[in-house]
Amino acid sequence: MNKVVLDNIPCEIDFKELQEKLRINEESDCLVEIKMMAAEAQLLARPKVVYKNAKIEAKGDNFVVIDGIKFTSRVLRVNLEEALEVFPYVVTCGTELEDWSKQFEDVFTIFCADTIKEMVLRLAFQTFEAHLDKEFGLGHAVEMNPGSLSDWPINEQIHLFELLGNVKELIGVQLTDSYLMLPIKSISGIRFPKEGTFENCQLCPREKCPSRKALFDKEYAESYKIH
Ligand code: SF4
């Protein structure tokens, strides 16, 4: 399947949610400024997604081959035991919003702009999930992201980008030499159907991570037999 680009994503920033994230109340002096920032961002934001429906062609002990490209990860391999196809993707808040956010110089407005970009990225990701459900009846699905576990290191981003073609040309996201994505508020990964639940965090023992979505489960982690 060819790559699919979603670039007409509805983007309505929930101001109440933004206010809660920024912890500012109705009496705050900066309320008007934040409202203006949100309105401006909403007008400019063009979040985007590129994905494809790819076939799993081979599986080894700790790797899978997807559309001719080899990914090395024991956890990915185990999670794809029943799967025949996957959906590699990159989702971004968009270069338009990234460029807009560069005008801010003080700590607070930089934080506000970052929070807005994060919210736009989440909206784009939700649109992507709904799109896959509608187009492919994906239903229950989970995802894995290169770099989120030591078993699937960040340098595997190269293969993911290779699988998706010219991601920079398609949606404006580029990889740095250290495999980070620009704009920073972008997510890359592979989404696939899977019974039960899976969160990278269940296998990650890192303490005090502010982004943790699930508790570390030692027994579950050991069931993957990561060598
Ligand atoms: S606990 Fe934190 S570092 Fe570990 S996988 Fe989850 S989000 Fe990533």
Architecture overview:
With about 230 residues, the chain is of the alpha+beta class. It has one domain: NADH Oxidase (3-Layer(aba) Sandwich), CATH 3.40.109. Helices cover about 35% and strands about 20% of the residues. The strands form two sheets. Strands 1, 2, 3, 4, 5, 6, 7 and 10 form an eight-stranded antiparallel sheet that branches. A hairpin with a 2-residue loop joins strand 4 and strand 5. Helix 2 crosses helix 5. It is globular and about 60 Å long. The structure holds iron/sulfur cluster.
The separation of the N and C termini measures 34 Å
Helix content: 25-40%
Bound molecules: iron/sulfur cluster
- What's the CATH class, please? Alpha Beta
Q: Judging by the overall fold, what is the CATH architecture?
A: 3-Layer(aba) Sandwich
Unreliable residue stretches = none
Major sheet: 8 strands, antiparallel
How many DSSP E strands? Answer: 10
Instruction: Report Rg.
Output: 19 Å
Order of helices and strands: EHHEEEEHEHHEHHEEEH
**Hey, roughly how much beta strand do the residues contain?**
15-25%
Q: How many structural domains can be distinguished in the coordinates?
A: 1
Specify the number of helices: 8
| Assembly status | single chain
Supply the helix-strand structural class.
alpha+beta
Shape descriptor = globular
- Please tell me the overall pLDDT: 94
CATH topology: NADH Oxidase
